[in-house]
Amino acid sequence: MTKHKVLVQPSGREFSVPAGQPVLVAALAAGITLPHGCKNGACGSCKGKVLSGIVHHGPHGEAALSAAEEADGFALFCCAIPQTDLVIEARITAALDGIVPHKMPARIEHIDWAAKDVAVLTVKLPASEHLKYRAGQYVDFILPNGVRRSYSIASMPDGDGPIEFHIRHMPGGTFTDALFGMTNPMVRERGILRLEGPLGTFFLREGDAEPIVLLASGTGFAPIKAILETIFAKSLHRDDPATGRRGRPVLLYWGARTRADLYMDALPRRWEQEQPNFRYIPVLSEPDGVSGMPETAESAPPWTGRTGLVHRAVMQDLPDLSGYQVYACGVPIMVQSAHRDFVAHCGLKEENFFSDAFVSRADLPATAR
Ligand SMILES: Cc1cc2nc3c(=O)[nH]c(=O)nc-3n(C[C@H](O)[C@H](O)[C@H](O)COP(=O)(O)OP(=O)(O)OC[C@H]3O[C@@H](n4cnc5c(N)ncnc54)[C@H](O)[C@@H]3O)c2cc1C
Ligand code: FES
User: Fold this and answer.
1) Ligand 2 in contact with 284 (CB < 6 A)?
2) pTM of the prediction?
3) 228 — phi, psi (to 5°)?
């Protein structure tokens, strides 16, 4: 079978790609972790430059890779199929070496209806299984017909409790219609799910020193919660007199439409009281709107907190992001806007922006759905 060689710069790592296979699939199979998120051409996390050689750009969303970027030599490595040997430019994520995704069953222990359209699922693995992951990564739920749906892990690695997921209802969606309508016995309490993970390259860079901005919209809070729990458990936000290491200041901006959509608001508010060097800034785009649990919106006093777009609130508070790391997660438009505006207007270094865009079938081109 014809294979094409791919050389990754600047690391100099090399691997070969069987005919017809996307670059990312072959890289991961060779143990080389290139940046990625959705793996289906919708989020843009795997975008990199083809320095030499030719690829066939598979079906992908225009928001993930525009025609102009394609003309400039960029490709989405999750769907780019080599037609010749290639030299590509991409960052290799060495911190994930040794973390190997695998398939496992999980029993749903509890479903908590945290808002009208958000379910918090806790699952337990068999005693023989251990899921080793980094805070921020996600897993795929494999449905009985083989269809996959991605969900970020909301609990920190190596915690003793069950594994937690925050799941937003997408009306018309295969999996979440079943969960919220409870039409499928697999997604009821005590049902068995099949998972594959951990996946993705969105995770906390624990060894770095920059102050941290965490940016979430809606259930984008899930991986951010795992990241925060890890920061607090490892005291990364506190000065360490033994080594002289300075604690990393941490700011959480959580955006939602209405107050009820901040479905775990009490938790970061409590952390703000308990933890030094941590600030929580909730931002509502429709503070007077009614959604989620109706009684919350009607009985609560008027909202006096921040309003507008959550990434704009960051820009107002921190017009210079040149010394920061940003971790952004949630709806694709928020993640894309934050990336574009933080780099263009606030001096954020490209390599200090980490994200997972919560894309779904609605974000794919018709040919790839
Ligand atoms: C890396 C990653 C991590 C994620 N983590 C989370 C998380 O922690 N929490 C969370 O809530 N979400 C998360 N998501 C998003 C989640 O995976 C999607 O929302 C998921 O697709 C929902 O599954 P579903 O089967 O209910 O909907 P799908 O069947 O995928 O449908 C999604 C939407 O698309 C519409 N649709 C379906 N088919 C078509 C079509 N042919 N044309 C037009 N529209 C169509 C549906 O009506 C629905 O509104 C994550 C996504 C990624 C990529
Ligand atoms: S991982 Fe390639 S576009 Fe999402």
Assistant:
1) no
2) 0.93
3) -65, -45
